[in-house]
Amino acid sequence: MCSSGRGTTLFASLLQGRNAAATDINPVAFCLTKSKAEVPGLDAVKARVKSLQKSYDRSARVQADGEAAELPPFFRRAFFHSTLRQLLFLRRRLRWRDETVDTFIGALVLGSLHGEMDRSPAYFSNQMPRTICLKPDYSLRYWRHHGLYPQKRNVFSMLGTKAEFRLQNGEAAQRGIAKLSDARLAAKVLPELAGRIRLVVTSPPYLDVTRFEEDQWLRLWFLGGEPNPTYGAVSKDDRHQNPDRYWNFLTDVWRGMMPLLRNDAIMVMRMGTKSLSFSGVSEGLLRSLRAVFPARSWLEKPVLSEIKGRQARAFNPQAAGCLYEADFIYAPFGPA
Fold this sequence. Notes:
Structural class: alpha/beta
Strand order of the largest sheet: 4-5-7-6
Distance between the termini: 23 Å
Number of strands: 7
Number of domains: 2
Number of helices: 14
Mean pLDDT: 90
């Protein structure tokens, strides 16, 4: 079992022949993870893209023009006008929550929605970081200062090409489980896994570092969210600045997943912060774990790794992010 993120851990588990499940309250994380948990066949994806393109007729373009006119100025500088129309059409038509093929197509869109236009033609947007979307006003100032305009991109043809690349090895034989849910409700949304989980891999929102809801606001918009950054609309626990509240939040997460764990379960956690010392993180995390699994300690010595550079700094040199990451391994029911 893992926290969802971009679905990499779940996908790696499936490639190793393991059973895997993941939860995340963020729709972007859920969509990306579900696309890796339930990988469709190439023919089905290409047929769906072709069907969507065929449905994108004159009336659909007119409707998209009306929707585009109501969007903030950011969108008209972020995307070429025909590209924006296609994205708006797909935003309305994709059933990414429920349909496996549509989830996969939605994930392809999310992966190409924004990125470095100067390095690759694989992105739909004007010049942006690929990992996060900066705030609209800052982006507009950046584009105007550098005289940058979006390039024309045909979303449908690019999706077909990307599907061929991603699915060239065929449909995945093994499938996992992805749930759009708060991690604190893991036992409730995954009752069939009670007492069956042997390995938990998780990387909770880093203390006082980032807001996933803010950083992924454009991808959240494509999945039906607001056309601007939001705070607390997806999760009230997206970012914590108070350490005590943060550790209490994690205690609730451990308590929520406890009924799913086997007696020989192992928990692997990657943590990060920009304000607490390594010892402070170690002590706070251990305290939160012991509140649910008493009298235990680390299974192995925690590993510290320094972060040497971040992509967002190329666009916003003043950005302050995580200073280090640390990996912890804990055996909740094992020997002290």
